[in-house]
Automatic annotation (TrEMBL):
<dbReference type="InterPro" id="IPR002938">
    <property type="entry name" value="FAD-bd"/>
</dbReference>
<keyword id="KW-0560">Oxidoreductase</keyword>
<feature type="domain" description="FAD-binding">
    <location>
        <begin position="11"/>
        <end position="351"/>
    </location>
</feature>
<dbReference type="GO" id="GO:0004497">
    <property type="term" value="F:monooxygenase activity"/>
</dbReference>
<keyword id="KW-0503">Monooxygenase</keyword>
<protein>
    <submittedName>
        <fullName>FAD-dependent monooxygenase</fullName>
    </submittedName>
</protein>
<dbReference type="Pfam" id="PF01494">
    <property type="entry name" value="FAD_binding_3"/>
</dbReference>
<dbReference type="InterPro" id="IPR036188">
    <property type="entry name" value="FAD/NAD-bd_sf"/>
</dbReference>
<dbReference type="InterPro" id="IPR050631">
    <property type="entry name" value="PheA/TfdB_FAD_monoxygenase"/>
</dbReference>
Length: 396
């Protein structure tokens, strides 16, 4: 066990105890690796945040042993519909079937399930209240230097370090000149207002897109009779209120939302950030630390789990296989192939997110009506709907 100012050997040190870091921890522990997961937050935040688990993500969670728990807690979205509201009536534009369904679960429940699984197979592996501040490469491994809430310095050394510490990633920023990974960032011209309210729509497990001239409105079911609403807005909202969002939803798509039932409210803009690589010496960048994409489309969390599926077996095999110590991994061609595949998937997800956002922007009423009519005709062809559903659910 680590002592202040000391260090201990691990096969892997995972920085970040969110859904991606916890998934890495579980997969590594299941493979027999000695893993520690460092999380700065002393307690888990009870915030819904990311809610969509796409079929490839559920596959990874099944390997992690938590899929059945989440399926029992969540809402399976097997169908989505696009509608337009105007002239006192609502018309259907298109309908999609998701097979397998998308699972909607609040992020805190997903983290709770992964944390319980990690505690089951590797008791004590999760260390809360430990803030990683820098990483130092060493011969055959790396050391993560941390500070606890009392300012005590602690070092965690491992053969591998997984940086799953979010889009701003202190670990990525602390790699140093020798292992610096170039990262391309760009702010996109989109802003959103999001809230969770009691569901009074009667849409049940249906996902709904309202294609309106003033901008798209999306709504998704959540457990417990709650529905998430996301509205594209003209500019960033500095001081959002549930009442303002409820009024916007009523004006734009005719939704009747009870502002008093709001359990989560958020306003956000969109930044896309893609790292040029995921491997830096003995550090693996994962999740948002490697590829931040727009939350519109809900692909970011699943991307991170797929990173874990790709890299956790390689980390475990390298650590447990007794490969000679050195700065690079054993079987470099396998690592390079995994990195190429994961970066390509991130670029594809980023393109899909940009398309989703472009389709959600405001248009003059006549152009919007014409576009919706074109969509209505196009989606009469079953193969178009099938292809679109596959893209939305990360299966194409």
């Amino acid at each position: 066990m680590e002592q202040p100012g000391g260090s201990a050997e691990h096969d892997a040190v995972v920085v970040g105890g969110g859904p991606v870091g916890l998934c890495f921890g579980v997969l590594l522990a299941q493979a027999g690796a000695n893993v520690v997961v460092l999380e700065a937050r002393p307690e888990r935040a009870k915030h819904t945040r990311a809610i969509g688990i796409h079929p490839p993500g559920l596959r990874v969670l099944r390997r992690a042993g938590v899929a059945d728990v989440l399926l029992a807690e969540g809402v399976q979205i097997a169908e989505g519909v696009a509608r337009s509201h105007g002239a006192g009536r609502t018309r259907e534009v298109a309908r999609l079937c998701f097979d397998p369904p998308v699972l909607a679960v609040p992020q805190w429940q997903t983290e709770e399930a992964l944390e319980a699984r990690l505690a089951e197979i590797a008791p004590g592996a999760l260390r809360r209240g430990v803030r990683a501040v820098r990483v130092e490469q060493a011969d055959g491994g790396a050391v993560v230097h941390c500070a606890d809430g009392e300012g005590t310095s602690t070092g965690f050394s491992g053969r591998w370090v997984v940086a799953a510490d979010g889009a701003r990633s202190p670990m990525r920023g602390a790699l140093g000149a020798q292992h610096h990974v170039p990262t391309r960032s760009r702010a996109l011209p989109d802003a959103y207002l999001m809230g969770d309210f009691a569901d009074t729509t009667g849409d049940g497990a249906l996902a709904v897109l309202h294609l309106e001239a003033a901008g798209i409105v999306e709504s998704f079911p959540l457990p417990g009779g709650v529905r998430r609403w996301v509205a594209h807005v003209d500019e960033a909202v500095v001081d959002p209120s549930a009442r303002d969002l409820a009024r916007l939803l009523g004006e734009r798509c005719g939704a009747e939302v009870d502002a008093a039932s709001c359990s989560m409210l958020s306003a956000f803009t969109v930044t896309e950030r893609l790292a040029a690589g995921m491997l830096a010496g003995r550090v693996v960048l994962a999740g948002d630390a490697a590829h931040e994409v727009s939350p519109i489309g809900g692909q970011g969390m699943t991307l991170g789990w797929l990173d874990a599926e790709a890299f956790a077996p390689l980390i475990a095999a390298d650590a447990l296989g007794g490969a000679p110590a050195g700065n690079g991994p054993a079987w470099p061609e396998l690592w390079a192939a995994a990195e190429r595949e994961r970066l390509a998937a991130a670029r594809l997800a980023a393109r899909q997110a940009r398309l989703n956002m472009a389709l959600g922007r405001a248009l003059p009423p006549r152009l919007m009506a014409a576009r919706n009519a074109a969509f209505r005709a196009l989606y009469r062809a079953p193969w178009v709907g099938g292809r679109t559903a596959a893209r939305f659910t990360m299966q194409a």
